[in-house]
Amino acid sequence: MDKIWFMQIVDFHTHAFPDEIAEKAISKLEEKSQIKAFLNGRLDSLLSSMDKNGIEKSVLCNIATKPEQFNSILRWCDKIRSERIIPLPSVHPDDKELKERIKLIKKFGFYGIKMHPFYQNFSIDEEKLYPIYEALVENDLFIVMHCGYDIAFPEWDIASPQRIINVINKFPELKFISTHLGAWRQWNEVENLMIGKNIFIEISFSFGWLKDEKIKDLILKHPSDYILFGTDSPWADQGREIENLKKLGLPKELMEKIFYLNAERLLR
To answer: In angstroms, rounded to a whole number, what is the distance separating the alpha carbons of residues 228 and 212?
Structure first.
């Protein structure tokens, strides 16, 4: 990294797994997505990458692919959290105890949850999600949502910008964080429907998929308080993503907001 770079950095979108399942999980996900991971999926490799690239904190996203995974994910999140690792538990929309689960997440002191419509089989604006959104608002928790298409699945319209707008219109107080520069590979709709509105947008997995000039244009047109830096590590190299953002030549004040100030506001 550039030695004159002293800005704090919070990576708002990372993944890791318990050591005993990391190798199997990464191998399975690599096969499904046809993408090679940059790290081995263990927590120590993420921390080493953070040290190497000057990242102060990483938000670690978990996904409950079955309702019965809630407790094991919650316990692991509680075990690994620290000043540098900010884990997000997950709930499954088919869980019969959704509101109680979210109350427990709040009681444990976590900041929010992560959900993924492709791996959890839902559309983000369908009614069975309403109890989750209601409970998040009631407990002042945020949600990090995979948005747009997913590289490992067909192009199903289950997390599109229009559906994001539907959710936010229904739950205006919900702190909804849309990943992948608003919605992966649905960036025309992002520009038409989301850019310019007070909607949190996390920028991971956009560099290399969209031209730098367009990424810069979308960032500059969006409210500066609603943009978050994320990498989706281990599926992207944290250091390279930092350099990709730096080379856009954004104003320093905006970079500070993207790299850490906006994240710190959500993580208070």
So the answer is: 17
Find all residues with CB under 8 Å of 10, minimum gap 6, and list them: 55, 56, 57, 58, 59, 228, 229, 259, 260, 263, 264, 267
- How many other C-beta atoms lie within 10 A of the C-beta of residue 211? 11
* Residue matched to tokens 């890791």: 16
pLDDT, mean of residues 161-188: 98
pTM of the shown model: 0.96
> In this structure, is residue 175 part of a structural domain?
yes
Read off the CATH number of the domain in which 122 is found: 3.20.20.140
Binning pLDDT at 50, 70 and 90, where does residue 6 land?
A: low
**Position 73, amino acid:** I
State how far the Cα of 31 lies from the Cα of 28, in Å rounded to an integer: 5
- 19 in a structural domain: yes
**CA atoms within 13 Å, Cβ hemisphere of 86:** 22
Task: Please report whether residue 161 resides in a domain.
Answer: yes
Give the whole-angstrom CA distance, residue 229 versus residue 252. Answer: 14
CA nearest 14: which of 62, 56, 51?
62
Let me know if residue 4 belongs to a domain: no
Rounded distance, CA 242 to CA 26, Å? 23
**Number of domains into which the chain is organized:** 1
Which structural domain, as residue segments, surrounds residue 32?
13-266
pLDDT digits (tens, 9 = 90+) for 212-265: 999 999 999 999 999 999 999 999 999 999 999 999 999 999 999 999 999 999
Q: Which helix (H) or strand (E) holds 201?
A: strand 200-202
